[in-house]
Amino acid sequence: MARPIAVAPQPLRAVAAAVLQGAGCPPDEAKVVADHLVGANLAGHDSHGVIRLVTYVPWLADGMVRAGRKAKVTHETEVGAVVDGDRGLGQAIGEEAVRVGIDKARTRGIAVVAVRNTGHLGRIGHWAERAAEAGLVSMHYVNTTGFGMLVAPFGSTEARLSANPMAFGAPRRGAPPIILDISTAAIAEGKIKVARAAGKALPAGLVLDGDGRPTTDPAAFYGPPRGAILPFGGHKGHGLSVMIELLAGALTGGGTTDPGRDDARYLLNNMLSIYLAPDLLGTGDAYIAEAERLTAWVTGAPPAGTGDRVLMPGDVERETAARRSAEGIPLDANTAAELRRLAEGFGADPAALAG
After folding, report:
1. Cβ distance 286 to 293 under 8 Å?
2. Is the dihedral angle over the CA atoms 159, 264, 121, 217 positive or is it negative?
3. Are the C-beta atoms of residues 80 and 101 closer than 8 Å to each other?
4. Residues in the chain where the model's pLDDT stays below 50
5. How far is the first Cα of the chain from the last one, in angstroms, to the nearest whole number?
6. How many Å apart are CA 201 and CA 303, to the nearest integer?
7. Cβ–Cβ under 8 Å, residues 165 and 124
8. How deeply is 50 buried, as exposed, middle or buried, from its count of CB atoms within 10 A (0-12, 13-18, 19+)?
9. What pLDDT was estimated at residue 1?
10. Which of 126, 192, 261, 347 lies 20 to 30 Å from 314, alpha-carbon distance?
11. Among candidate residues 123, 122, 119, 70, the one with its CA nearest the CA of residue 99
């Protein structure tokens, strides 16, 4: 049996960019998307990393997502904008939309940007990190219009909602930002893909099979028939998911989850992002001081066990990135083989994936 391998970030970026170019993406777009995917791997979010190429390439071939698209601002005010992605690759469209939000918030202190009709936006925490780098507090809410029904409403066993992720970012002065990146699903669907590729069982209590029975087998989730993911925290995750549908889907004009839509065969994301400059309310210096005080107070709490320590949101991702930058990004044997196949199919050098 083939063994897992570890790949240095830069060669993996090069392979991912070459595959995307081979699939029809312009070089600049391929680089943006490859950087985003490998960044997700570095942060430990392998579900949103290079494993996604296995689905992105067929989507590009089938027209489910379009290469070379640019974000188009279809509605704009001093503090607001609606960005249409023209079914382009979400990581590239998202980068353009976030720049719109950052520029407006820097000028006016606040911005609300709606992104709609775009492909998979990737790891949403990345957008909160981008805003925090610019000194802005931000909130991001995402839904999927019809293709990505994964989650059963609380009290049901049938998938009718998407994973509906959300991310929050808070800058600090001279220190890493606080970044919370979660979904309303008990587990990301991408993590089910990772477990299936690695031949591993899922934790109990997260997933149902196609007959509505609890399962730890990732293959049983995919069926057929496909099963459902449970909302995290029962009714709490369910309620958040419904509200995110309204914020990301209804308020943006992109639409809520609906398998009857004409475009339901495409995985289309919508995102509502809110950007706030700390000085908007005249509390910029006080905010920074409070952020430091709170961080010290929370992380100074006595640990629950020997060797444990209290972390802030985002600490795990940063520590994982530092470790993987030094040691390489782990890829299970199946994912590495799929990436080698894609690289060879597009004439790219798969040497970095040799193991």
Report:
1. no
2. positive
3. no
4. 1
5. 13
6. 30
7. yes
8. buried
9. 43
10. 192
11. 70
79 burial type by CB count under 10 A (0-12 exposed, 13-18 middle, 19+ buried): middle
- From the list 37, 30, 33, 38, the residue with the least C-alpha distance to 9 is 38
CA 257 to chain centre: 18
pTM of the model: 0.95
What pLDDT is attached to residue 160?
Answer: 96
Q: Angle at the Cα of 146 (from 143 to 147), degrees rounded to 5?
A: 100
Q: Please return the burial class of 35, using the count of CB atoms within 10 Å of its CB with bins 0-12, 13-18 and 19+.
A: middle
Q: Is the peptide bond before 214 cis (omega within 30 degrees of 0)?
A: no
How many CB atoms neighbour CB 345 within 10 A? 13
CB burial of 151-173 (b: ≥16 within 10 Å; e: otherwise) equals: bbbbeebebebbbbbbbbbbbbe
d(CA 212, CA 216): 13
